[in-house]
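[job 4417] fold queue: 2 targets
>>> target A
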Amino acid sequence: MIFYAIFLEDIVRMVYGHKLQLHFKVVKVIIGPLTISYTRPAEITSDCTLLFRELLASAKLEEEEEKQLRLTCVALYVEVLLKFLRLKDRDLKNALQDCPAKVRNHIFHKYTEMVNQKRIRNREAADRAMVCLLILAFIVNKYQLSVSALLQSINIDRNRLEVVMRVIGASHIWNGISYKLQLPLARVAKQYVGKKQKK
């Protein structure tokens, strides 16, 4: 979790664009047609995912405005990763143009590579992006995510989702309608690897 704590600060800087002030009256975060403002209701376009809506609702429950902003930035980054994962390889070249350049460059550098002058995203990179967005989403939403929001927002079937959740250490709660991330992650990962080796 130390890595993700550091990464969260990087995300906030990439999305928000400058160093956060400890005190502020008006906050706006803009990605393409989406504007988040704490002086009036958020303007959310119809193409936003259900997962993003849940994360944004969770962020707005925080009492401190600065924490609201930080979690909103992370939620926006998750939404961009979801959009990235839905892209076809042939569309990668000119994708995510409505995102801040730092966010776009970061995602392309981390999850794609150039092969024969073409940008590609292999299966391993896609899996890493999915694991990253899931853990970040868990952090924003107090370590719980609804199954319905995940299935409606991520291009994944239920069986594949179960496998990914076991890998990152999340388990069902409330009769299977939600997942809860178990902490610490290192201990859960060690248990999973041990079970895998015994098979």
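>>> target B
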Amino acid sequence: MMCWDCWTQEGSPKLNTPEIVQAAAMAAELNEFGALHIILADFNIDDDDIAFCRSLADELTEGDARFLDLFEPMSIEERASCLGLADGYWEVRDVPDPSNNR
């Protein structure tokens, strides 16, 4: 679980897109003490942090790699939203998906 303070320092973003929701669901199921520890638990979400995790290819699970494939193209705000959602700091029902034009 990432730290509350880290999420709030990023502005407590609550962006709701299908990619964020999907990646958040994946993140919630991953081992936060595994190869993605610096992302999932320490909230290091910059490009160089992702590159470091990818460099641990021998330690990455298939799920880790799929998560990174979704997470890497996101902006910092989207990444923070994703991890905040995964850790329960906000809920999808709180923020409408902007792609739904109802």
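[job 4417] complete. Note on B: DSSP finds six helices and no strands in the chain.
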